[in-house]
Amino acid sequence: MQTRRERLRAATVREISETARRILVEEGPEAVTLRAIAREMGMTAPALYRYFGSHGELLRHLVGDLFTELTDELYAAAGTVAPGDLSGRFLVVARRFRRWALANPREYGLLFGSPVRGRHEHEDIDFAEEAARRFGGTFMALFLELWNRQPFPVVPDDEIDPALRSQLARYRAEVGVDLPLGVIQTYLKCWVRLQGGVSLDVFGHLEFALTDAEPLFELMLSELAPEIGLTYTPPRRDA
Length: 239
Description:
The chain is an all-alpha fold. The protein is built from ten helices and no strands. It has two domains: 1-53, Arc Repressor Mutant, subunit A; 64-227, Tetracycline Repressor, domain 2.
């Protein structure tokens, strides 16, 4: 059980993070400074250093909070589909990811724009990295379940470009999964298409041609699903 002091500290950290997010949304990432947060909270900037050692550390905590929120949304979406419906779970998670991104463009930019500094390489994994890995694990878990239940065709390991093969092997070791490198390659290709398409939409890079990019997103899903042995179903109007 937390002590009263620990509860007060946790509440203050939450308020700092919520204030930082509000400033991010209302004024943009450049406005998220310790001084601005302190002013909003009626504190002095030096007082914030009792909770965060630097501006970078504060932003990384906010990143961790946002990844946690996004991941919880994805798990909640997956939970609305029967466990055996792998196609349905993949589609609902992909669509919820895009929906969250479009509803929270500045938060999305903080997560998937330029990396937020604030942790030295020799330090242990921090909250932001733990939350980011949990987020990544959402899609990896879906892929693992899909491969284990109904394997789809992949390129044999020895036919993968050697320069790519070594990188895939390193990544496989980092995430600790026992999968053919061809599966890892397919997983990354799917992620690049999914996240790349969402990013172009969120950052306004499709506006030169489209006023509504959802049909193009659905077209991408309809092409992607069969490649990994899934069945595409158009979204319901109320989805």
